[in-house]
Specification:
The chain is an alpha/beta fold. Helices cover about 25% and strands about 35% of the residues. α3 packs across α4 and α4 packs across α5.
């Protein structure tokens, strides 16, 4: 059964499916369902504590007598933390929330998770929700890690039998070992992340919301978290908040920029990052009107000839993309990144060749990087396509894939000097 929560006097409404799937009445959302629907959601806060308490008492009294105060009105010292945000998210879609500190990202997540109520608008969440928004949120500090798993599983609507079937898998993924039976108040921040992420994802929620807390974990566990998200994201809707652009590129297909509570419509993640870079470079706001620029590149496709190479071997890539105008001085850059998201090597077309000529429409190239000299291991590849004379962070696009280098390294070079690029 779909539960409808009555709107408050400020006309805010939150609705969704009941989290209890075992009563036989709750329909499971289909693969084509919109799992998250946000319609003109707004939330205001007050900078002054005394006024905030007084406003809260007045609003509560208005609700009790059924009086509806104009929700668009800001009283002294009030400000919009989130203002008129709308979007939809279907199963299999991953959305990145992008913005400066204080832009409203965490406030929006907290409203989506039901921790705070919007002052205006409507939120609809369908299915089971897993969330990692605040470090330690949802954990009882005096209970052990194991006991908190059972408590959180019951909140998600899992029976004790279902939790018993998954408990060993959760403990193994979290790598907490003997500490699983210690009170969580003795856990470090990294241990909180391990327990929270393991509990939230092992049961494959319909909606997964993650704030920046994954960054608290060590590098190896972060890589493990991203692999887990990759494995479940086709079955769920993911809302992801981070300041690490490489992580956004790795996980998300779409992005929304938040600035002073206002939001720009959903765009491809690369375009959203492009706009955000422009905002930072010019110190501008979303309503300044300068964002009507020509974004020429789209549908970027990068594929290596294979995903496993040996030290000293030549790596061959096929790359194609669409462009809506002629670019006479084009550039292509491929970055090799390690598991810490640090660039360990780069290839730039302009270093060994003249600038590239991009025709209007589809462009296809083959890139050969000769005698690769990278240490054995796994590397993520980022592609940036840009135009000479324009900052690479003004016109760029990313697609990220993974390759593996094997063999015994004989020497080591962080530069890829010999290369060849030709029309495909």
């Amino acid at each position: 059964m779909k539960q409808q929560h009555p709107p408050s006097s400020s006309q805010a409404q939150v609705s969704g499916f009941s989290p209890q799937p075992s009563d036989g009445l709750v329909p499971k959302p289909s693969d084509d369902d919109v799992l998250v629907r946000v319609e003109n959601v707004s939330k205001k806060f007050c900078r002054d504590l005394k006024k905030s308490l007084w406003y809260g008492m007045k609003d509560l009294g208005s609700e009790l007598i059924g009086r509806n105060r104009g929700s668009d009105e800001l009283r002294p010292d009030e400000f919009w933390a989130v203002k008129d945000v709308s979007f939809e998210l279907r199963r299999g879609e991953c959305l990145g929330l992008i913005g400066r500190n204080g832009a409203g990202k965490t406030t929006l997540l907290r409203m989506l998770n039901g921790l705070i109520k919007p002052d205006k608008g409507r939120i609809e969440m369908c299915g089971r929700v897993g969330a990692l928004i605040a470090l330690g949120a949802g954990f009882n500090p005096i209970l052990t890690g194991r006991e908190n798993i059972y408590v959180n599983a019951s909140v998600l609507g899992l029976s004790k039998k279902e939790t018993n079937e998954k408990i060993d898998e959760i403990i193994e993924f979290s790598e907490l070992g003997e500490f699983i039976d210690s009170p969580v108040q003795s856990y470090s921040s990294g241990m909180y992340v391990r327990l929270g992420f393991s509990t939230a994802t092992i049961f494959t929620p319909d909606i997964l919301m993650i704030d920046e807390i994954i960054a608290v974990g060590d590098f190896a566990f972060r890589a493990k978290c991203f692999d887990k998200i990759e494995s479940i994201k086709n079955k769920t809707s993911v809302i992801f908040v981070t300041h690490n652009h490489h992580d956004l590129i790795r996980i998300c297909q779409q992005g929304i920029i938040l600035e002073s509570g206002k939001a720009l419509n959903k765009n491809e993640i690369s375009k959203s990052l492009l706009i955000y870079q422009k905002l930072k470079q010019t110190n501008s706001r979303l309503n300044d009107g300068f964002l009507n620029f020509n974004y020429p590149f789209s549908n970027i496709y990068l594929k290596p000839e294979k995903t496993v190479y040996y030290w000293g071997e030549t790596i061959v890539f096929k790359i194609s993309f669409l462009i809506n105008r002629i670019v006479e001085k084009g550039k292509i850059r491929i970055s090799f990144m390690d598991y810490k998201d640090e660039v360990v090597s780069e290839w730039r077309s302009e270093n060994n060749h003249d600038f590239l000529f991009f025709v209007k429409g589809k462009n296809d190239f083959i890139i050969k990087l000769c005698k690769i000299q990278l240490a054995p291991g796994e590397y993520y590849l980022n592609t940036i396509i840009s135009e000479s004379g324009i900052s690479e962070y003004s016109v760029f696009s990313f697609k990220q894939i993974k390759i593996e280098i094997k063999g015994n390294a004989i020497g080591f070079s962080t530069y890829l000097l010999k290369s060849k690029i030709e029309k495909w």
